[in-house]
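I am still getting used to backbone structure tokens and would like to learn alongside you. To get us started, please write out a protein record for me. Once you have written the record down, we can walk along the chain together.
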Amino acid sequence: MPIVFLTSLAHFEAVINGNRPVIVEFWAEWCGVCQTMSPLFEQLAAHNPAAQFYRLDIENVRDVALALGVRNLPAYKVFKKGVQVGDLVGADHSQLVRLVKNM
């Protein structure tokens, strides 16, 4: 499944309140570390069709990032039925794989 960009607070809320597990990658185009993690995130999305993978550009949807306390990039948050059940901050490949596996 391709990664979808979240475009607003309403879009974010609709997505996380669904029935499928959701993982959101918080990133920015200027973030070099984010760019190095993107291929792995895309690979995980392709191999985990039971979950939904989203990307949120903190420059475009700043209100969501601020509301969730995202201060460092990249950051990943997992939601199930509107509740955050996991997170990761930083560029740790093995921890991202583990986070997705435990969704």
